[in-house]
Amino acid sequence: MRKKKLPIILTILFFSAMITLIFSARAVHNSMIPNVKVSRLTRQEFEYEVELNNELLGFTNRIIQTKVSYAIPKELYDSGKVFIIGHDEINGDIRTVAMSYNIEIRLENDEYYEVANRFFGGTPLFIMESNKEIEEGTEVYVVE
Questions:
Q1: Within 13 A of 52's CA, how many CA atoms are on the CB side?
Q2: Rounded distance, CA 4 to CA 8, Å?
Q3: 69 burial via Cβ count (<10 Å: 0-12, 13-18, 19+)
Q4: DSSP states of 101-119 as a string?
Q5: What is the dihedral of CA 69, 72, 75, 76, to 10 degrees?
Q6: Residue spans per domain, the chain
Q7: pTM for this structure?
Q8: Statement: residue 83 has pLDDT above 70
Q9: In the predicted model, what is the mean pLDDT of the chain?
Q10: How many angstroms separate the CA atoms of 61 and 58, rounded?
């Protein structure tokens, strides 16, 4: 009788372990890939100087104006690695990946650079923080 119980107990333990792995596989996978925090670009005020020439009166006037534009934090841009969220097929599934993005800048203030790029239909999601090193095409998990 004891010989019959051991295979039954081992079978129950095996299937219990498989069910546990099935339900925790995604959480384990997400903990092994870079976890990132994302955000859209904010809009910030930037000051710029305008030179007005009046040739009839013979003087030049300089005024400071402000404009509101999309901005990227200086520390993110200065790191040299600006990534956005994209989607790619990996192992037959559509996954969230990091894609490098070329930013052109114009003006700056204390904390931000003005972004010269034009965004049609809204700005993409930029990766602001990551718990691991990211390269082009790296699969990432977006943390809320």
A1: 8
A2: 7
A3: middle
A4: ----EEEE-SSEEEE----
A5: -170
A6: 1-32, 35-44+71-142
A7: 0.73
A8: yes
A9: 88
A10: 10
Beta bridge partners of 29: none
The per-residue pLDDT for range 117-128, each reduced to its tens digit, is 888 777 899 999
**Residue 41: which of 100, 116, 110 has the closest Cα?**
116
At residue 1 the predicted structure's pLDDT band, cuts being 50, 70 and 90, is low
Q: In whole angstroms, what separates CA 108 from the centre of its chain?
A: 21
Q: How many CB atoms lie within 10 A of CB 144?
A: 4
Helix/strand/coil for 143? coil
Query: What is the pLDDT at residue 96?
Result: 92
∠ Cα 71 72 76 (to 5°)? 170
